[in-house]
Amino acid sequence: EQSKYWMYESINEQLKENFYNNKKIKAGLIEKEQQVLNAEFTSFTAAKKLLDTYFEELKGNKLVY
SS3 of 38, please? Predict the structure, then answer.
């Protein structure tokens, strides 16, 4: 059970690190934060837009394992 926990913990940490270190996401976060604060987007909509950007970029890189 502990090994399984650490496997998922490792996946979560690597996904989070990859997401936040992505150049498009870094730029988009600043913009989306401001849009949320200005009530232009809900927090959920802003998050979805950032995730959509991230996943589209991953598709473009065509990562295959």
Answer: coil
Instruction: Give first-to-last CA distance, the chain, whole Å.
Output: 26
Show me where the domains of the chain are located.
2-61
The residue among 62 and 22 whose pLDDT is bigger is: 22
Report whether 13 contacts 7 (CB < 8 A): no
The per-residue pLDDT for range 5-46, each reduced to its tens digit, is 999 999 999 999 999 999 999 999 999 999 999 999 999 999
Cβ atoms of 56 and 45 within 8 Å: the answer is no
Report yes or no: 53 and 29 within 8 Å, Cβ to Cβ.
Answer: no
